[in-house]
Amino acid sequence: MSEKWKQAIVYQIYPRSFCDSDGDGVGDIPGILSKLDHLAELGINTIWLSPVYASPNDDNGYDISDYKAIHPDFGTMEDFDRLLAEAKGRGIDIIMDLVINHTSDEHEWFRRALAGEEKYRSYYVIKKGKNGGVPNNWGNFFADCPWAPFGDAANDEWYLHLFSKKQPDLNWENPEVYDEIKEILRFWLDKGVAGFRCDVINVIHKNSYADGKKQLALTGIEHYHSTEGCHDILRRLRREVLDDYNAWTVGETVMVDLQQAKELCSPERRELDMVFAFEHMECDQIYVKWFKTKFHPIRLMRCLTKWQTGLDWNSVYFENHDQPRSVSRFGNDGRYRVQSAKMLAGLLLSLRGTVYIYQGQEIGMTNGDFASLNEIMDIESHNVDKMAKGLGILNPWRWRLIRKTSRDNARTPMQWSAAPGAGFTAGKPWLQINRNHARINAEADRADPDGIFAFYQKLIALKKQSDILQKGSFTQLHAKGKLYAFAREYNGRKLIAVCSFAGRTLPLPKGLCGKLLLSSYTGTADAAAPLQPWEFRLLEC
Ligand code: ISL
Predict the structure, then answer these.
(1) Which pLDDT does position 2 carry in this prediction?
(2) Which of 103, 55, 49 is nearest to 80 (CA)?
(3) For a 10 Å CB count at each end of the chain, is N or C smaller?
(4) Average pLDDT in the 376-405 region?
């Protein structure tokens, strides 16, 4: 197994919320530098750095105004270079977030387009209105209309923005756009980054701008989802840029199904190395992600098994900056917070694929404790509120829906200590720190040899040295009610992972036997003993 991305244990940093070194309330690169030892001790070997580029921050950096500059809030390019070097010194690679479906409307290209430069107009998707309205009936990812007036409204010209108004979509039909992006990739690769996490990469290329088939959300998606043009761009970027650096990519591929995922990461087609699929993140929703339903572990198990057996290599993750916290969602963030966070860690690290851990997950951080929409900054949540209001949904219901699904749930500042400011900042944090930081914080958890961090450490160390966990096959053994078990096998050796989603003891089903290799409860001595609430057990056969 030579592909280095298969051995990557990735830790995602959302820089605004990680560690603030200068007291302005926003995390920064010197802050990250000060926490590199935390990451090295955890055992990860790769950082995925969410955007640190220049940006007006309409979507917290996913609206880039200069791809080759560091946002002053985060520090300087020298700080970034130091981060790269110091991380390398600890055996940690960095992959960057590549956001190329859109730029910021404050990017020089868009400004010059607005100023009337033909060259730059053709970098974006600008269309005439139709029948006194916008150019087509498409939907938008942030519950908005995807068209905004381009310049003077009297001209009846509109630009496409699948995300916020301040994120105009690039026109990937234009070869000059491709060349510009190629240069941007080279700029970061020349510095020594190991690869890229490619934002919404399967929607960048649009086939047509005709009306779409009407649906509840994202009408028009058939015109831009996984198009042949997108596949072609990915193949060219691989051949013409990434190969020169032996760089790897993970694509954030929204609404991808198994077949599409197989195509996107087929070793023969050479497009992406792996994808982030979302089906398991949708197992507690009704149709769109803003409508959550009760979580049934069986749905998660079915989804995991489907992708583990259907795709050779998965990106395994339970959290990122767009999703609620896993312990609040799939675990129990009350009485069994520690136990369920440890079980989810065991499950995550026993699956086949590259593991992604989101900041704070390693100490079992929970959803934000916001009291009202006023405390939420996420643009998506505010748009959803407007949309729901338009549908006549009353405020208490709107708030219930947003509170559960808001992306800010995962974006509250990292809880380093019980101090005021949580050891995250000496100033006023950009987003309210969860009040539970007095109890839930890295300092306290790390002091506990039985804590969540310590369990992640054990699992990561095991994953790194176990051929079975790294290369082994996956077979589901049990998925019923609240119990999930599967085998990993390699060269005739076998491990069995057993995961309880129950808040009570459960008998261990017959057939799940072996020598006890690891349990999330230190007290467990007998491999065949009933499972403790939310226990994770790894057996060796
Ligand atoms: O949950 C989702 C799909 O099930 C969506 O949140 C989806 O992941 C998202 O809309 C796409 O996210 C990415 O691109 C956005 C940015 O706001 C997100 O933070 C980023 O992860 C636009 O760049």
Answers:
(1) 57
(2) 49
(3) N
(4) 94
Q: How far is the CA of 200 from the centre of ligand 1 (A)?
A: 7
Structure tokens at 283: 């197992």
pTM here is: 0.97
Residue pair 307/283 in contact (Cβ under 8 Å)? The answer is no
Angle at 471 between CA 465 and CA 472, to 5 degrees: 105
SS3 512: coil
Residue holding tokens 């000060």? 34
Which DSSP letter does residue 155 get? G
CA angle (311 as vertex; 258, 225 as ends), nearest 5: 30
Pick from 61, 146, 124: nearest CA to 98: 61
The bridge status of strand 314-316 relative to strand 288-292 is unpaired
Q: 3-state SS of the chain: helix, strand, coil percent to 5?
A: 35, 20, 45
**Residue 246 — φ and ψ, nearest 5°?**
55, 40
**Residues lining ligand 1, CB < 6 A?**
59, 62, 99, 141, 163, 199-200, 252, 254, 278, 281, 289, 321-322
- pLDDT (tens digit per residue) in 471-526: 999 999 999 999 999 999 999 999 999 999 999 999 999 999 999 999 999 988 89
497 with 472: CB under 8 angstroms? no
- Gyration radius from the chain CA atoms: 23
Cα of 141 vs centre of ligand 1, distance in Å, is 8
pLDDT tens column, 74-121:
999 999 999 999 999 999 999 999 999 999 999 999 999 999 999 999
The SS3 of residue 357 is strand
Q: Which domains does the chain have, with CATH numbers?
A: 4-101+175-203+222-278+298-456 (3.20.20.80), 108-160 (3.90.400.10), 470-540 (2.60.40.1180)
In DSSP terms, 53 is beta-bridged to: 70
98 Cα to the center of ligand 1, angstroms: 13
